[in-house]
Amino acid sequence: MEQTLKISKIKDGTVIDHIAAGKALKVLSILKIDEKSNNYSVSIGIRVPSSKMSYKDVIKIENRNLEKFEVDKISLIAPDASISIVKDYEVTQKYTVELPARIVGIVKCHNANCITNVKEPVSSEFTLVSKKPLVIRCNFCERNMSEREILGSL
Ligand code: CTP
Ligand code: ZN
């Protein structure tokens, strides 16, 4: 008999699946889901056995859609995550997140003197340099940011 842990299906909402094991809490934090969120039900699986990557995290959020900037942030935390939109128990749309070639307005440059940190209306803009390991470069001051720095600034 199969001995897998099943998280209940949801009726309407968003499933973020195939998150690298241990990264779900960071994803929740960028989605601003915390003890004060009282408008939707959330199920979280951390280090759930998965055939694809041996262990994975899963987040299911009832009655919530993700904005583009949120999906872009998730791609920086969990580049292999898949997003499923569920309507009346059926998956109506499913896609894998994709690291954008240009990352605009979602990461704060690590250089305190960068114009994006000094002049308020200038929004940050980075170019993707490498996916694994994750490296992005500021289009203004040309400073590279590592995965650790990126995660710390989201
Ligand atoms: N799901 C859910 N509630 C539903 C329908 C689907 O929570 N009413 C979840 C599934 O548990 C899965 C994801 O949404 O985590 C994608 O659903 P589906 O494509 O049906 O699952 P699988 O074929 O198992 O997907 P994968 O190969 O991506 O694991
Ligand atoms: Zn910069």
Would you write up a description of this structure?
This protein is α+β, with helices and mostly antiparallel strands and 154 residues long. It folds into two domains: 13-96, Aspartate carbamoyltransferase regulatory subunit, N-terminal domain (Alpha-Beta Plaits), CATH 3.30.70; 102-153, Roll (SH3 type barrels), CATH 2.30.30. The protein contains four helices and nine strands; from the N terminus they run E-H-E-E-H-E-E-E-H-E-E-E-H. Strand 4 (82-87) and strand 5 (90-96) form a beta hairpin. The termini are far apart. The model has no long low-confidence stretch (mean pLDDT 93). The structure holds cytidine-5'-triphosphate (CTP) and zinc ion. Zinc ion binds next to loops.
Keywords:
single chain, binds cytidine-5'-triphosphate, 4 helices, five-stranded antiparallel sheet, SH3 type barrels, alpha+beta, 154 residues, 2 domains, four-stranded antiparallel sheet, binds zinc ion, Alpha-Beta Plaits
